[in-house]
Amino acid sequence: xxxxxxxxxxxxxxxxxxxxxxxxxxxxxxxxxxxxxxxxxxxxxxxxxxxxxxxxxxxxxxxxxxxxxxxxxxxxxxxxxxxxxxxxxxxxxxxxxxxxxxxxxxxxxxxxxxxxxxxxxxxxxxxxxxxxxxxxxxxxxxxxxxxxxxxxxxxxxxxxxxxxxxxxxxxxxxxxxxxxxxxx
Length: 184
Hints:
Order of helices and strands: HEEEEHEEEEE
Largest sheet: 5 strands, antiparallel
Strand content: over 45%
Shape: elongated
Number of helices: 2
CATH architecture of the largest domain: Sandwich
């Protein structure tokens, strides 16, 4: 009987200890899953920024826009919902701000309806954006800003600063017809 009692004591001691190890292992796994890896956004400039005239009546220039494409990549394997974008464009030579834009998710959807505002895990998407500027730009521009998103575990931001970028000016839509006389 002493042997059975010793065995019983031994089993009682082993089971709680094993249960404690199992609970600790489960807790550690749960904490790791709750913490999880956070998503990460990497924003790059795709192509050359283009200055385009805003024309009406065929050849009347009413202003100019600077358009460019942002490539947004998620680099850590988490889907990220884009929640906002803000950027400004500066003249590199003078330091003068030429324009700025701040848009939330809904405004981005209206601005670029063909583009989904979710960056897939490990994937990328592009956002074509623009800002009104005073005229054709002779000097290089600096484009800098932030793209914010939510990866399900919280808020994150991808900062970008595209130093000195030369722009391309789209041709003026001046032809034979139109309401405005050609400028000399």
